[in-house]
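Reading a protein record of the kind used here takes only a little practice. The integers have meaning only within a learned vocabulary of local backbone shapes. With that in mind, consider the following protein and its fold in token form:
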Amino acid sequence: MTDLPRRQQRARGPAPVRHGRLPQRRLLASVLKLLAGVVAIAVVSGFSLTAYAVWDVARSVKHGVTLVALPGHTAAPQDIPNVGAIPGGVNLLLAGTDTRSGLGGVYNSAAEQDASSGAGNNDVTMLLHIAQDHKSMMVISFPRDLMVRIPTCPTPDGKDTVSGSSYAQFNTTLSRGGLACVVLTVEKLTGVDIPFGAVINFDGVSAMSTAVGGVTVCLASKVKDDYTNPPLDLPAGENTLVGDQALSFLRSRHGVGDGSDLGRISNQQVFLSALARKIVSGGVLGNPVQLYALAKAAVQNVTPSQTLTNPTTLVEIALALKDTGLQNMVFLQYPAVADPDNPNRVIPDDEASTAVNNALVNDQPVALTGTTGRAAEDPNATATPTPGPMPTTPPSATASPAPTIPSSPTGTGTPAPTNASGSVELPSTVTGQTAAQQTCTKGNN
């Protein structure tokens, strides 16, 4: 409908019919105007989609947790950006809590609430390290049963402190002093500063797997575990895991490897390497809107550090891996050996842990020389993985009093020698895999 007055509408009548061709200049001008309009619409639409994505993620972010007062690591407001990779390196700690509080559904039962409520334990803890030049990445998984020194930590409200311990189970750090305590403990253990951190719950893991359309993993043999919720019963071969089934797969201990926590870590690395391949090969890193959708799936069920409350920071961290290459993305378990004072616990392997810490502190890429771990196998490998000593009985949630453990190894600050490719070759006792390795999970059935 036109905005002209009615009398002008009546006076105009039908437009005369023109015959012949428009002058060339007018035709060119019309084409240019049309092209300019299309470009403008495309630019505005793309900007609007990204702007909406940022807003949609931002409104889902929870209140941030204060880690430590490191200069230059404060969360600052940011406008809709021309999104690019975060400058420099990244150290980000992710703590997976086993709490059932506030999750509802199947977790509302008395048995589930009795299993874990409140802050919960950090039964899964991973440190993401992206090199300064973005050419390499490490994801280090810390065993839940690792006995470590825990420093004095601030209480979650920041108004008091929690006394440290010379010998305590690592997965009690979250319930002891929240995310900040987990971060401080890993900083003391490894020697690196960790400015970014987040706590993720069960629902968050389910949402992340759904956001990428499921993750396809290889099973060398069937995986059956009646202890997970929901229970697992997966056949050998390729399985695409989505939602709660993906969560059960990541949580499974009885159904994979030798039934130990270290077996569960290598099983998680099978999943994470498959997820990395899907994100990198599927073009997610080249699509800001998809990246913000993935970020939304994360932040809805994540309690971030204050340094991660800006949703764009998550996208910038992801973009730092755009050109890293799957072969340079290494997933490894923090090296541990059986605790001589408690067969159901482990302590840091001094030599191997020092090698890992040195690589972290000196920002050096690493190369694995060991096996893929207890619950994973590489079909293309020439040797069969041989698991080391580890308890097979389920450990309790808290540690019994025991003698003081040896000093936790930290980085020396002296760069280690590198191989021909420029990477530090880690001792063969360090288990793990790269994202390029298409490994398979070994079931415990």
Q: What stands out?
A: The mean pLDDT is 78. The CA atoms of residues 134 and 320 lie 6 Å apart. The longest strand covers residues 122-130. The chain has one domain: 60-392+411-441.
